[in-house]
Give the backbone structure.
Amino acid sequence: MTNIMEAQNVKLSYGKFEALHGISLNFPEKQLTALIGPSGCGKSTFLRCLNRMNDDIDNINITGKILLEGKDIYRAKLDLVALRKKVGMVFQQPTPFPFPVYDNVAYGLRVAGVKDKQLIDQRVEESLKQAAIWDETKDNLQRNAQEFSGGQQQRICIARALAVRPEVVLLDEPTSALDPISSAEIEETLMGLKKKYTFIMVTHNLQQASRVSDQVAFLMDGELIESGPTEQMFLAPKKEITSNYLNGRFG
Ligand SMILES: Nc1ncnc2c1ncn2[C@@H]1O[C@H](COP(=O)(O)OP(=O)(O)O)[C@@H](O)[C@H]1O
Ligand SMILES: [Mg+2]
C-alpha cells in the first residue's frame, strides 16, 4: 500500500504554546483516515498543516516534514497554488461562494487558468455527480449556491474541491453543522469516492469514524496516541487510554 502523504515528527507552536508535539503519521492512498480526539487536542491544527493553511498565522513555527508523493510540502519555492490544487479542503461550515452553483464548482479550474468552456462544463457536471448533488442542482446551475440547504451546500463544496481533481481532500468535521440525514448523505458520498481519492477527515463523531474510515488516528494534547486500521482500533486498541476514549469514558 502506497502512502500518498507522510507526516514526520511534525511540531507546531502558536507563539510559545506548542500545540503539536511531534506527530508522525502515514496516509495510505485512496483510503479515508479519520483524525479523532478530544476538543482542543490539535486535530484541526494538524489537518491544516497538510496543505499549509496555517502559514499565514502570526508567530507560528512548524518543524518536521510533511511529504506529498515523497516531496516535502514545506520546501522552499513550493508553489502554494499547485499544492492546494493537489490537497483540497472542505470545512465544518459549508462555505460556498455567494454566486451560482456552476461558478462555485468551476472556480478552481478558472483560477488554474482553464478557459475551455466544454472542459469546464464537463468537469462541473462530473464533480457534482461525484459529490452526489447533480440531481438536485442540474436544473438550477445558475442559482446562488448559498440558497441551497446546509447539506446541499456542503455537497456543492465537496464538488468544488473535487473539480480540480485533487490527490487528497482534507475535511474538518464536514458534517457536524448538518442534520442527521444530510450527514448520512455526506458519509455515503465519501464512501462512494474512496476508490478515487484519498481523504483525511477530522471528526468528533466516533460512530462516523467507525463507519467511513479505513484508518483511525487518535490524538490527545497534541500527541498521536495511536493509529491503525479502523477495525483494529475499535475492537482491540493497543492502549488503555484509547479504549477509554472510544468507549466514551472521557472527551
Ligand atoms: N490560531 C491559533 N492561535 C493560538 N492557539 C491556537 C490557534 N488555533 C488553535 N489554537 C490552540 O491549539 C490547540 C489545538 O487546537 P485545534 O487544532 O483547534 O484543536 P481541535 O481541532 O482538536 O479541537 C488548542 O489549545 C487551541 O486553543
Ligand atoms: Mg477542530
Notes: The chain has a mean pLDDT of 96. Residues 179 and 239 are 33 Å apart (CA to CA). The two ends are 32 Å apart (CA to CA).
